[in-house]
């Protein structure tokens, strides 16, 4: 069984800096999480988004495919 990894939006940007190319920031990723685009949970008192890495990757791939179809950008 693989490890289930959750990361904060800032950590995800550090792990996947290519998302900056499409204008994703930690704040945008947090907003997208609150809109239901990622799987995860809100942690403790800080109300900090903790996003499942697999969910983030799937969304990144989806956006990449849409952008390819629109001839915009590829990761």
Would you kindly provide a written description of the structure presented here, covering whatever features stand out?
- The protein is α+β, with helices and mostly antiparallel strands and 75 residues long.
- It has one domain (6-69).
- Helix content is 44%, strand content 15%.
- The chain contains 3 helices and 3 strands.
- Strands 1-3-2 form a 3-stranded antiparallel beta sheet.
- Strand 2 (40-43) and strand 3 (48-52) form a beta hairpin.
- The N and C termini lie far apart (28 Å).
**Overall tally of domains:** 1
Task: Please give the count of helices.
Answer: 3
Q: Roughly how many Å is the radius of gyration?
A: 13 Å
Largest sheet geometry:
3 strands, antiparallel
- End-to-end separation: 28 Å
- Based on secondary structure, the structural category is alpha+beta
Question: How many β-strands, per DSSP?
Answer: 3
Helix content: 40-55%
Strand content range:
5-15%
What's the mean pLDDT score?
89
Query: From N to C, what is the helix and strand string?
Result: EHHEEH
Q: Segments where pLDDT lies below 50 for 5+ residues? A: none
| Shape field | globular
